[in-house]
Amino acid sequence: MKVSRAQAEQNRERILDNAAQLFRERGFDGIGLNELMQAAGLTRGGFYGHFESKDDLAAQALARALSTQAELWRQQTDRSLTGWINAYLSDAHREQVGAGCGLAALAGDVARAGPAVRDVFAGGVQAAVQRLTPQMPAADDAERRAQAMALLSTLVGALLLSRAVGDDALAQELREAARAHLPVAIG
Fold first, then answer.
1. 172: which residues sit within 8 A by CB, 6+ positions away?
2. Number of domains in the chain
3. Does the pLDDT value for residue 21 go beyond 80?
4. Domain extent for 32
5. Are 160 and 177 in contact (CB under 8 A)?
């Protein structure tokens, strides 16, 4: 049975949404095409009608995750940078890998991925730095950018490490240390 263009687009969006979550939860190599398509309620046979390859899906799903994350970060940092930092380093964010930061969830996978995925990831890093830079306390643009990079690196690193250790107390200590020793004065 042939599906309409509108239905095909809905299917593609469902695949991207599910892949964005599942890749963050399991990594790019931690889930196969059959499972990805099944999670979207579709069969593997339709995959290549939407994407050229799993790498193409990975790049597009990462772009989806980072775009969603960027909008959420914009809303949160507009209200309170300190509030956003606390939310980023929270227990809930640590535990919600599939709905959380794609930078922390997929950094290791991206380092071994192809150029398309790496380009999307680099764009996400640049967007985050660009979002944070105006909120940094330094006197000049170059130093504010450096502070934003240090802040982002500290937060992503702390979240990544806290997810990787099997010890809840150590995970909490890592995030608390990051919060207490941020590389910029956040008020």
1. 91, 162
2. 1
3. yes
4. 5-180
5. no
